[in-house]
Design a protein that fits this description.
heterodimer; A: mainly alpha; 2 domains; B: 533 residues; alpha+beta; D-Maltodextrin-Binding Protein, domain 2; Dipeptide-binding Protein, domain 1; Dipeptide-binding Protein, domain 3; 11-stranded mixed beta sheet; 19 helices
């Protein structure tokens, strides 16, 4: 009987478990986002910056100033302001940006794909070069390969990004002419492909316009390589460290004693066991890039979310700051959740 | 970017150029397209009744007609007829009646009528956005515009509250807020009684040389030539202004031929690019002034001898020749050169001994401590530091507080800063624009809250200067009016708590084939329609 009962209950239990976990995940996401909104909102309001000035300018008369203040709802008590804000956010409305005169949500829909495109290519470059480099460095510990890998990582950590970016532009764009200059496209190609995702590489590929695609690629390759290099520095260093630990484990010695090929020892036994940790590193690296890199965006005139939020912050455009922060924060949280799920997928002990 | 990092970058660029040899411009933009690199992240609206930023003014000047306008090819001539064919002034000097030119059309195809002029001016007053003071200073209010701005047939009359100098009124109408909008088109997009403001922030409805294609914030502005422009279709069929923040990036783009004009090169990049084949440096005096001001709420700074001493503790020539080289020129008067009434007398120079004597006379030979508020802009910080060094030599300690524009400005407007390192740009091409903020303050009380007036922000009562400024603005004899401004500035130089330091010099790197580009001098904004290649 107990056996039969178990059988009958088997389909229901995983579904309930899944629904429970999903509900817990969504609940956790909601609470975190709410906390993020709360902190950002109140920090934004207590900062010694006057958002009204951002709207009316320094020469406005007191009447114009007072009208603008009331229109922004800043004459209300803080909790009331927060409540109104939450109500609007729940409807998907982050308000109007003072700087761009557009809904914040539209701005984010415009600037985030630019960052997403850049960050994705950047992290791909970082992973494709950084992981093998880190493995090679660990396998050849103390040898010249290792020294080079460490030097690459060190330079990546210590070189100011704006300097490297400008030198990259000078050499590869200014002198050699191998890549496109600042901006996402040459001006002549602007607006030629319909916007679907906002990512020009994807949109031009969808439209089958390979001229625009190749122009967009020539513009993105340098900033993406720059960001990729900084990711690479982190990823290769962490990969090396994880691999060194894995390679000193007893099961590796056992595998070698058993006569396995070095390739199999390294990639099948050691590397397989660092996948989980490495995944966390890569996800974090990606999340960092998705926040937007202000300096890279400035040097390459890349209209991404980092520049958008920074500009908004400096001008006290709090709707834009809050909207941008919520989006970046939510992505961070989601990526962390994805990382946790993958962790469980790859490592049965974590289930 | 800090001075050190700028230096590092320039040195690296210089070395790399020496090592490899910078190639000449490798490509060029199409012959009928003008591509400009500029910092345009200050644009918050392209509605002429609202826009009050430099980059926005540059765009709007090319999109709209005005009753009277400045000719970019003859700026010294002052205003000339545009939508108004002619005008007459009533005997009491209060009413100006404009006759509207026949045959003008908007880009939409709608004719430009007296009704559009009436609508545009009334709208600017009723919307009451920041630049509305340029019109409301004539006594126009949302309540009285129905009687004071009146279109009838093909004429429009405006009636002011006082008999102002006609040149003053017409000069104001050349400002951005004087743009004539297509009333039918604008009102088609009205929502919630906003007179089309929401829509016009990001669209154009004018009859100027260009129509707005698109403004992508922090990215670009694209304009297309108006084939029916009354002066003829512009040679540049498209104008694209790209937001490029970094000077070095602008320089590389110009050298590669991807842009025609680089508007924000720093002195290092100007020096580096000067003399390169195919590129020239255009110089123009801008309208911006750099100044130091001393809050009269501080009892030490309120002493006349201390105010004077401060003006001898500034190394004008040293700063002009070093970190401000080529970008700013010494000017110690509140009217920028090229303005009507401007003077060139610059009597102050760094003189520590004289300053010491003045401080002793003021009874503060031991010095005191004051705070300066500075926005986080490199050259302003360097000015503050230079001033700090000179003050230290006479025992005055200057604490420098650096903050964002909004932070520092908020405190300045609240009369909380002892010293402010600021810039000021004229709002319209008439001497009253600066006279009415530097040397005019009818009510110096805190309660007045006149935050828009610089004299008030520094708690300074200019005494008889206020009446002199009022008299100058109603003087219809131009010669006399100019003399009055000369006198006002002479008194201001000696007595005011302002040390006017420099006037902006614009250095713009331009591809050699670009001709007739005027960026507005000190009195207006950029005009692209005369440009040829």
């Amino acid at each position: 009987m107990p056996q039969a009962a178990t059988r009958r209950g088997r389909p229901a239990a995983p579904l309930a478990g899944f629904l429970g976990r999903a509900a817990a995940g969504i609940g956790s996401l909601a609470v975190t986002v709410l906390g993020l909104l709360f902190v950002t909102f109140f920090i934004g309001r207590v900062m010694p910056i006057d958002p009204v000035l951002a709207v009316v300018g320094e020469r406005a008369s007191p009447e114009v100033y007072a009208d603008a203040r009331a229109a922004l709802g800043l004459d209300q008590p803080l909790p009331v302001q927060f409540w109104y804000y939450l109500r609007e956010v729940a409807r998907g409305d982050f308000g109007m940006s003072l700087l761009t005169a557009r809904p914040v949500i539209d701005d984010i829909a415009r600037v985030f794909p630019a960052t997403l495109e850049l960050a994705t290519l950047g992290v791909l470059i970082g992973v494709l070069i950084g992981v093998p480099l880190g493995v090679l460095a660990a396998v050849n510990r103390g040898r010249w390969v290792d020294q080079i890998a460490r030097l690459v990582a060190l330079v990546g950590y210590s070189m100011p990004i704006f300097w490297l970016g400008l030198i990259g532009l000078l050499v590869f764009y200014g002198i050699l002419g191998w890549v496109g200059g600042p901006g996402r496209l040459d001006v002549f190609y602007d607006g030629l492909v319909p916007t679907v995702t906002g990512m020009i590489l994807v949109d031009s590929a969808l439209a089958g316009d390979w001229t625009v695609f190749s122009n967009a690629l020539s513009h993105i390759i340098l900033p993406a390589s720059l960001l990729g290099y900084f990711s690479l520095a982190y990823i290769s260093r962490m990969t090396r460290s994880f691999m060194l630990e894995a390679l000193s484990a007893e099961y590796i010695t056992t595998a070698r004693v058993k006569g396995m090929s070095e390739w199999r020892v390294v990639w099948v036994h050691a590397f397989r066991n660092i996948r989980v940790q490495l995944l966390t590193v890569i996800v974090l690296s990606y999340a960092n890039l998705l926040e937007g890199s202000v300096l890279t965006e400035i040097i390459f005139s890349w209209p991404g979310i980092g520049f958008y939020i920074t500009n908004a912050l400096l001008a006290a455009d709090m709707n834009a700051v809050l909207g941008g922060t919520v989006v970046v924060g939510t992505i961070f949280i989601i990526l962390n959740m994805v990382s946790d799920l993958l962790y469980k997928f790859f490592d049965p002990r974590a289930r | 970017m800090t001075a050190f990092s700028r230096l590092m970058t320039s040195a690296a660029l210089g070395l790399a150029v020496m090592a490899t040899g910078m190639p000449a411009a490798m490509a060029e933009t199409p012959p009928n397209m003008l591509v400009i690199a500029n910092r345009i992240d200050d644009i918050t609206s392209l509605d002429p009744a609202e826009s009050f930023e430099f980059s926005g003014s540059d765009v709007i000047r090319n999109l709209y007609l005005k009753l009277v306008n400045l000719d970019p090819m003859d700026m010294e001539a002052g205003y000339k007829p545009e939508v108004a064919d002619s005008w007459e002034v009533s005997e009491d000097g209060k009413t100006i009646t404009f006759t509207i030119r026949d045959g003008l059309t908007f880009v939409s195809g709608n004719p430009v009528t007296a009704e559009d002029v009436q609508f545009s001016l009334r709208r600017a007053v009723i919307l009451n956005k920041t630049p509305s003071f340029i019109l409301t200073q004539f006594g126009f209010t949302p309540e009285n515009v129905a009687n004071t701005i009146v279109g009838e047939g093909n004429t429009v009359s405006i009636t002011t509250d006082k008999p102002y100098a006609t040149s003053f009124v017409l000069n104001c109408l050349t400002a951005t807020i004087g743009a004539i909008v297509d009333s039918k088109l604008v009102m088609e997009h009205e929502t919630g009684g906003d007179m089309g403001n929401g829509w016009l922030k990001t669209h154009s409805a004018g009859g100027g040389a260009y129509a707005l294609n698109e403004w992508k914030p922090n990215e670009s502005v694209t304009m297309t030539a108006n084939p029916d422009f009354y002066q003829g279709e512009p040679a540049m069929k498209r104008v694209i202004i790209r937001h490029v923040q970094e000077s070095a990036s602008q320089r590389l783009m110009l050298e590669r031929g991807d842009i025609d004009v680089a508007r924000n090169l720093n002195p290092e990049d100007i020096a580096g690019i000067e003399g390169e084949e195919g590129i020239r440096i255009d110089e123009e005096l801008g309208g911006q002034l750099m100044y130091l001001s001393f809050n009269q709420k501080n009892p030490e700074l309120a002493k006349p001898q201390v105010r004077e001493a401060m003006k001898y503790l500034i190394d004008y020539a040293g700063m002009e020749a070093s970190f401000l080289k080529g970008q700013w020129a010494v000017q110690q008067n509140f009217l920028p050169l090229t303005f009507q009434g401007a003077v060139e007398e610059n009597p102050f120079s760094l003189d520590i001994e004289k300053a010491k004597a003045l401080l002793a006379e003021a009874g503060v030979p031991e010095g005191f401590t004051i705070e300066a508020g500075v926005r986080e802009a490199q050259e302003r910080i360097e000015i503050a530091q230079t001033f700090q060094n000179a003050l230290a030599q006479v025992g005055i300690k200057l604490d420098i507080t650096v903050g964002t524009a909004a932070q520092i400005l908020g405190r300045y407007r609240a009369r909380e800063l002892d010293v402010y390192v600021g810039t000021w740009g004229p709002d319209y091409p008439d001497p009253h624009t600066n006279a009415s903020t530097f040397a005019w303050n009818p009510d110096n009380s805190d309660a007045a809250g006149a935050t828009g007036i610089l004299a008030w922000r520094n708690a300074w009562d200019p005494g008889d200067l206020t009446a002199k400024v009022d008299a100058a603005v109603t003087e219809n004899d131009t010669g006399k009016r100019v003399e009055m401004y000369h006198d006002i500035q002479a008194e201001f130089r000696e007595t005011s708590p302002f040390a006017i330091l420099f006037q902006q010099k614009r250095q713009t790197a331009v591809a050699d084939d670009v001709q007739n580009l005027n960026l507005g001098d000190a009195i207006s904004a950029a005009a692209y329609w005369p440009v040829t290649k």
